[in-house]
Amino acid sequence: MNHNYHLQGYFFVVCAVMGYGSAGILGRMMYQYEPDPLTVAFLRAMAACLLLVFGFLCFQRSLFRIKRSSLPLLVLYGFLGMFCTPLCFLSAIKYTTVSTATILFNSAPAVVVLLSAWLFRESLTRRTSAAVLLTLVGAALVAQCYRPESLQFELTGILFGCGACVSMALFTVCGKYVTHDYPSWTVVFYGGVAGAGFLGIFRTFQGPLTLHHPPAFWGWLLLQALLPAILADACYLGSLRYLNAGTVSILTSFQVVVAPLLAWLFLGETLTALQLLGAGLVLAGILVLRRPSSLKISASSTLDAPARKSASIA
């Protein structure tokens, strides 16, 4: 029973990785027609919300139901996950390569593991500490911290990549709370509505929204809404029901393989030898975590952690 419980969590993680891994390449494709990251993020959020509304109305209207007391947390979730994270990530791939932005983004486990140890009392073992260290060193190599001239040239993209990392870490911790009371689809929808609202407010300062784009743009937008914005987020939240936040975050670092591979296939991007080493170190964090003793998770403690923490705060 416990084994099957964990397998469901790993299945959701794999689906999330595939969806998130496509975000960079899809975003770069959209930049051929719309160069503004804020506009791209706003349209993506709106498209995702409309698709979810259609799906809820057709299949399960009960997914719209939430408690008013949950609105502040859902708004915070949307601000972190549907506003800050995609805006920073889409900006990062605009100013640097898809591979670099994705690998920097995946240094989030270093933050998540520490936050989870504090908020959810999840154990910080030697193995998870080693995974965090590997991730940080790998991210530093990918950002080419050893070459100040290169770091300065791509500083804007690197800063946005680090911003996406931090917001994703906070989004993960927030997700542990909201998924305790609602299905993943409900959380993704209301988070998307909140995120679209924040994006829309900021977008109004840039003037009228231009919708005169060729059909190809709307096709890429639809894929952006379906894969990274809806399915990946829903699977990511679903995995948090079965695995602890630190484990999920480190396992999703497998994007460091998926995203650069897609970028190489479709965009011809390449990494230097040291950047490849850095990507390998980030991936090594996953391999360290794969050993059975590091994956022993208490299902009940994982699901009850948010409730216990909420009680202590109250």
Question: What would you call the structural class?
Answer: mainly alpha
Spans of at least 5 consecutive residues whose pLDDT stays below 50 are 292-314
Task: Give the overall form.
Answer: globular
CA radius of gyration:
19 Å
β-strand percent reads under 5%
Task: Tell me the total number of β-strands.
Answer: 0
Q: What letter string, H or E per element, gives the SSE order? A: HHHHHHHHHHHHHHH
In whole angstroms, how far apart are the ends?
34 Å
Count of individual domains: 1
* Main beta-sheet annotation: none
Helix content: over 70%
SS summary, helix count: 15
Mean pLDDT: 80
InterPro entries: EamA_dom, EmrE-like
Protein name: Transporter
GO cellular component, one term: membrane
Organism: Candidatus Moduliflexus flocculans
Polypeptide structure, described:
The protein is mostly helical and 314 residues long. It has one domain (2-56, 69-313). 76% of the residues lie in helices and 0% in strands. The protein has helices spanning 2-21, 23-30, 37-59, 71-95, 98-105, 108-119, 126-142, 148-153, 155-178, 184-203, 215-239, 245-251, 255-267, 273-289, 299-313. Residues 292-314 have low confidence and may be disordered. Residues 8-142, 156-289 form the EamA domain. This is Transporter.
Features:
single chain; 314 residues; mainly alpha; disordered C terminus; Transporter; membrane; transmembrane helix; transmembrane
